[in-house]
Amino acid sequence: MYNSKWRYIKLVFKRSKTHNNFLLTFLVVLLVVTLISILSFTGCRVTEEEPVISEPEAEEGDEGSEAVEEKVDEDKITGMEVTGNINILSGLNISDTVGNSRPIALMIENSPDSRPQSGLIYADMVFEVVDEGGVTRYVAVFSSYDAEIVGPVRSARIYYAEIARSFNPIYAFWGTYTEAYKVIEDIGLDVLTPLGDQSGNSTIVANTSSGWRDYSRSNITEHTAFMSTIKLKEEAADYGYSLEGGQSPLRFKVDAVDSDKGDISNININFSYDTYRVSFEYNRENNNYLKFTGGSPHTDYETGKQIAVNNVIVIITNIEGPIDQYGHMAVRTTGTSDIGKAFFFMDGNMIEGTWERTSVFDPFKYKDDDGNIVLFNRGSTWVALIQDTNRLTY
């Protein structure tokens, strides 16, 4: 019995030990499998979350890079640019004689009976474009110098107002028609006019009394209205307009040395009829262009001096009309460079390029065919708008 009993005990013990080893092994395997499953599941979650965090950062970085590159491209220039304490429209050094006031833009007429005009020789920039009946009219912009007498002053048109808006100026004109008053108000021009909107279509009222009529100049009323930039500034200040600020389409360089000057001497622009045909003759010694209108020197009434400018710009754009019973024209004043051909004359040379303007609130931008910003000579600039290249010869 003794031996049998212990054999039974030993047998049971051996079976129990085997069973326990099996359970232990099973538990260890189960634990390992569980741990592997947990780690695998956790790893999957980490892998899925990483792109969600990183993608926005990459997108923000890409947008920033594009913005910087775009800005650099817009300001791409060749040559040495004149900067510093200069007038934004003429590039001349500001001094006791050269100012830098907010631009004053005035409407000046060009019918034969209005010639010679007063004050155009003091303008930094003049834009010329055809009006009803083939007559051209000017947007004359003053900042560097004042003109005690400017005129004859005439009424505004929508596209003239849009051109003026490019300077963020004080815009002076002798009334306009109902639809134009509303556009002028909508584009936010600070205006001075002796004739307000009587239709109620806008809130523009007569707010200047400094203008006058000089019947010694003509017996036709339309050719007798005159203003003064000095008096306009005084009235603008009284009316609450700022006399500081403005914007310019021009950037500047020094005049070319004699060896770099060209020989393009005669620039001819055909706006409509011969009496409005314009030509510029290059004066190599003074490095400027003498202006002729209708075959005669274009002179100033008070001084008798012929108008001379340092740069001539010819813009090709869409001009249509008459568009209504009054003979009004439509002129495109905005657009991209792919539809804006332009020719730039300075130093006896011609640079072929483009013009562009994003909206009526922006200044014009002038580039050469390589996309570089054109640098202009310091001084005055005449800008002509015509509808096709056949109207320009040089």
Structure description:
The chain is of the alpha+beta class. The chain folds into two domains: 1-74; 104-393, YerB-like fold. The chain is 26% helix and 23% strand. The protein has helices at 2-74, 158-165, 178-186, 229-239; strands at 104-109, 125-130, 136-142, 170-172, 190-192, 212-213, 225-226, 251-253, 266-269, 278-283, 288-293, 296-297, 308-309, 311-316, 319-320, 330-331, 341-346, 349-356, 365-368, 375-377, 381-386, 392-393. It has a ten-stranded mixed sheet with strand order 5-4-1-3-2-21-14-17-18-19, with helices on both faces. Strands 9, 10, 11, 12, 13 and 22 form a six-stranded antiparallel sheet that branches. A two-stranded antiparallel sheet has the order 6-7. The model is unreliable at 1-24 and 35-73 (pLDDT under 50).
Main attributes of the structure:
globular, 6-stranded antiparallel beta sheet, single chain, YerB-like fold, disordered N terminus, 394 residues, 4 helices, 23% strand, 26% helix, 10-stranded mixed beta sheet, alpha+beta
